[in-house]
Amino acid sequence: MGSLSIWHWLIVLLVVVMIFGTKKLRNIGSDLGGAVKGFKEGMREEEKTADAAKVQDQSAAANAPAPAIDVQAKEKS
Question: Where does the chain cross the membrane (predicted)?
Answer without folding.
Answer: 6-22
